[in-house]
Amino acid sequence: MILILIGIMLPSIKRARETALQVVCSSNVRQHGLGLMLYAQDYTDHLPPTKFAPPPLAGPNAATVPAQADQMVILRIGVSPNDWDGLGFLYGHDYLDASKIYYCPSHSGDHPFRRYESAWNKPVAEIVGNYQYRGPARFGVPSDGALIVDALRTKRDFSHRVGANVLRSDYSVLWLADTGRQLINALPDYELEDTAADKVEDAWSIIDAEVQAVKK
Question: Which of 39, 53, 122, 144 has the most CB atoms less than 10 A away?
């Protein structure tokens, strides 16, 4: 009888635990939003730069350098002590200086906090987080689109499996359910996949559409 009761209760316990972890993750994302707001106030409304979303080349006929959207979970490149990137600037410039905030408590993919815990104390080491950055200035992003979301780098790195916490460009946070698995199915199967950047861009488009639909 006890085993039967445990079997009945276990799914509910797991759901309750994941719901609690989603709340913690939401708090992490919200703190990222506060960090971005403070950064923008100090840098004339500019958001942190990233080497993976270079600005358009100069000249009227110059092409735009393609963005590597899949790489925008990297917080520090690891070449020099101050070689922070994207959301990593929030840590490097003391806006968000608790390293664990950069990691989702539900993450079960290739980049958990324990893998990088010691790297935060080393002067030169690559650091990868669990939150996907959109980039400082992306043309075509709706004014109510998304700036940060749970990692989109691969299917394994999609932390909650059933949805994601999203920071909108107005710095509000919402939970976006992926009930039809459209979002997770759009993601790359593995890192460095030839079409990884394009797939992550497609995922951002799905998120933007869902965010706007929720707002309506």
Answer: 53
Indicate the SS3 state at residue 192. coil
Q: What is the pLDDT of residue 80?
A: 86
Give backbone dihedrals phi and psi of 164, rounded to 5 degrees, phi first: -155, 150
Phi, psi of 78 (to 5 degrees): 100, 10
Contact in structure between 21 and 106 (CB atoms under 8 Å): yes
Strand 173-177, strand 131-133: pairing: unpaired
Short-list 130, 37, 44, 143, CA closest to 88:
130
Q: How many Cβ atoms sit within 10 Å of the Cβ of residue 105?
A: 19
C-alpha span between 162 and 154 (Å, rounded): 14
State the chain's mean pLDDT as an integer: 86
Q: Using CA of residue 93, residue 95, residue 98, residue 104, what is the dihedral sign?
A: negative
Residues with Cβ within 8 Å of residue 97, at least 6 apart in sequence: 91
Give this prediction's pTM. 0.87
